[in-house]
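Page 42, continued from yesterday. The earlier attempt failed because a stray header line got pasted into the input along with the sequence. Redoing it now with the clean sequence only.
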Amino acid sequence: MRRRIATAAAAAVGLLAGFAAVQVANADADRPGRRLDTALLEDRLTDVAALTDGSVLVEVRDGDDAWRAATGPRSPEEDAPDARPGDRVRIGSVTKSMVAAVVLQLDGEGELDLDDPIDRYLPGLLPYEEQPTVRQLLGHTGGVPDWVALAYPGMEEGDLAEVREGYETYYEPEELVAIAAAEDPLFAPGEGWAYSNTGYTLLGLLIEERTGHSLRHELRERVFAPAGLHDTDLPRPATAGIRGPHSVPYITTGDPDDPYFDASAASNSQLWASGGVVSTVRDVDDFYDALTDGTLLTAEQLAEATAFADTGTGFQYGLGLGAIALDCPDGQEVFLGHVGDGMGHQTQTFHSLDGDRDATVSWSIDDKHGCHDPEQFGGAVFALLAAGLCPAPA
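This time it went through. Structure tokens are written below.
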């Protein structure tokens, strides 16, 4: 959720920077004639695991074939149990794809209009003369500043002082919006692109205003239940921590004497609509399958969500969905998905537009200020994703 990695564009750019070599390596790989090359996937997972002291969870699917794996301990503490593929993680901004699905459903039901200004439904929250539309909030083109960057300004440089002091603080959603609304807009609505957790906090409030129910209730009824996500939930805002078996989420500090900050107790009120869902890699793949097969969205709604536009960062974005293009053995192909930062937990998830291929990777230590090269780690993660997404030739 934090600005330096939760920003979808920034994370994607970091991955894409290491991708040119991945393209060549996968195109030239000696791959057996089967749908999933598990030996290659295991090698790629080993590469990722060698660059972190925490756990790595992964699920890859190609049609009816699925490969799930976990490596590393649930905590770098001595005698910590090993991670398992079904461990729960904060999926961070992957939550945005789920919130966007609910907003699109409400638009289809006539409960809102994507092109209405947000103050038609939530008057007074943004003191701007020109209000962003619902569609612009979904696509991060509304110009609303990101409250996270304002509340935790030192984090970009690895200074966790503000995080240590404030990560357990409970906020009402309106308070988070107020942090951002105290600043001028970054640009006029529709005149730029800037990732905004504040925008999705507003969308969470919009869902509650239009339905009369909590965001948690609407996600359960409209997304989790129809998609069969049995290990997925949005924790109550007044709670903290992660229920069920999970790895410990850590943020690296850059201090060799105290290298890891345990972010388990982060207030679920802060993550909420912009990044608060707790799930598993299997459920994340199930969600995107349901998003593309008609379970959650009509073909017309999915087309709107996947009308990807260039963000100016090397990463394309639609409505709650990002896109990447990979050079697979059969040619270039576009995959939809998202990246997520869940206060220590990191998730990358991408999927073919036809829903046949899925790849989700999650790890437990945000290591930007640790002992490993973040570009090398990002390249290893992307190589693992690419090995799963690009099908082996028959």
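Notes: Confidence is low (pLDDT under 50) at residues 1-34.
Reminder to self: strip header lines before submitting.
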